[in-house]
Amino acid sequence: MKIKAIILCSVVLLLTGCATEFNRVFKSTDYDYRYEYAKQCFAEGRFGRAEQLLQDLITLKKGTDEAEEALYMLAMSQYMNGDYETAAATFKKYYSSYPRGIYAEQAMFYVGQSLYEGAPEPRLDQTPTIGAINAYQQFMDFFPESRLRGKAQERLFELQDKLVVKELLSAQLYYNLGGYFGNINSNSESNYSSSIIVAQNALKNYPYSNHREDFSLLIMKSKFELAENSSIDKRMERYQDAEDECYGFINEYPESKNKSLAEKYIEKCKKVTKE
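Given the sequence above, the corresponding structure tokens read:
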């Protein structure tokens, strides 16, 4: 117990001493000393304290040789502290201020990386995801030979897949609403039609997606349900369209586990169109 108490006291004294030293540096009017201490904190991974010191020094060092390095270290400290939105803005500021600077390549890459880290799950608004995709694309355009290009491309594809999943969830939601109990006929038609449109646009916009079969399945199911819920004057045309969609699904995905569902739909469609 005595040993534990001694260790605890030592840790407390050490932390108190560090805090006292930092406060002394923070209040110092020797800006060069403060800057060197900020660099030391950054090098040692104490990014919170580095950021605190650099916030003021950015203005104070403006026009000096250290200004460029200070701005980059501030952005990287914010990134390492998990403040991704602020970091993205600071990296952008660095690049716009120093487009030919020594850290220009890294700064542009980390704009995308910061936005990537802050991108939400597919169910939420994907504006940050689109921003990250644009940032990575801009980085690859400006630095096509960069050693970071491979990582940027990998992240870009990952973010694009997130957009695909967002569209898939949206198409699925419309499909589910179409069959929701209590929906009047016109609403059912509208929801199934919306599911078809969302899925078709996704197939067009993301031709190499791993979710192509999922979208195609939703189109097929929605067209069949649309036919089932159609008024008399549209019924025959929509059953024929659904039948064609089923044949197209089987041709494109002959090994699909949903092939039997497509065949079931075809049988029903033929029965109606031959009446």
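The mean pLDDT is 89. Try to locate this feature in the token string yourself.
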